[in-house]
Amino acid sequence: MTEDQFWQIIETSRAAALEEQGETYSEDDLFDAHLATLQGELSKLSGVELGAFITLFQQKKIDAYRWDLWGVTYWLFGGCGDDSFSDFRSNLISLGRSVFETAISNPDQLAATMQREDLPYMLSEGFQNVAFDVAEEQGVSEEGLAFPRYPSDPAGEDFDFDDHAEMARRYPQLLAAFPDSGELG
Questions:
Q1: How many structural domains is the chain composed of?
Q2: d(CA 134, CA 50)
Q3: N or C: which end of the chain has fewer CB within 10 A?
Q4: Is there a domain that residue 185 lies in?
Q5: Is 153 domain-assigned?
Q6: How sure is the predictor about 167, in pLDDT bands with cuts at 50, 70 and 90?
Q7: What is the pTM of this model?
């Protein structure tokens, strides 16, 4: 499976969920619809393709395992632990290639993304598990999957997420849109 195929599955399932929900939907409805449409797309894959999807998903989570993205998450939700940051990165992937790659290249640009109405609650569990659930249904063993090695620490420079001046320096757009930490929490 190529990265293009991986992102096509994510984006096709997201578009189907948005279409299914129509003009008005709640955050939870869209989240559940996207989980269902992603599950449907993944169910069409062979065991080998599904394993490749899972491997790429895990790699994307590693690519986003960065202090600068953790800082954004911490600010938006008024704190962030390991599990919450894992959920955030999984939901970030669910938004598609463009949003994901923009967040990786400039986390401050998430300020605009986080104001969109079509977002899931970014700390929801689900997206990191849906492929594993499909694999289990298909009898694909986790033991046969090749997972990329997870780093012990996030990439980049750790810094004080509670230091307002430091956060404003690093994320001017984010703090302009969300001046108080925890506004989305």
A1: 1
A2: 8
A3: C
A4: no
A5: yes
A6: very high
A7: 0.94
Distance between CA atoms of 114 and 118, rounded to whole angstroms?
Answer: 9
d(CA 119, CA 74): 17
- Domain assignment present for residue 92? The answer is yes
- Would you say how long the chain is, in residues? 185
What is the sign of the dihedral through the CA atoms of 124, 86, 110 and 185?
A: positive
Please report which confidence band the pLDDT of residue 144 belongs to, taking 50, 70 and 90 as the band edges: low
For 82, other C-beta atoms within 10 Å of its C-beta total: 8
> HSE of 136 in the Cβ direction (CA atoms, 13 Å)?
5
- Written in H, E and C, the secondary structure of the chain is CCHHHHHHHHHHHHHHHHHHHCCCCCHHHHHHHHHHHHHHHHHCCCHHHHHHHHHHHHHHHHHCCEHHHHHHHHHHHCCCCHHHHHHHHHHHHHCCHHHHHHHHHCHHHHHHHCCCCCCCCCCCCCHHHHHHHHHHHHCCCHHHCCCCCCCCCCECCCCCCCCHHHHHHHCHHHHHHCCCCCCCC
Residue 100 lies in a domain: yes
Cα–Cα distance for residue pair 132/154, rounded to 1 Å: 24
Q: What sign does the CA torsion over 31, 122, 14, 134 have?
A: negative
pLDDT tens figures, 22-69: 877 777 788 999 999 999 999 999 999 999 999 999 999 999 999 999
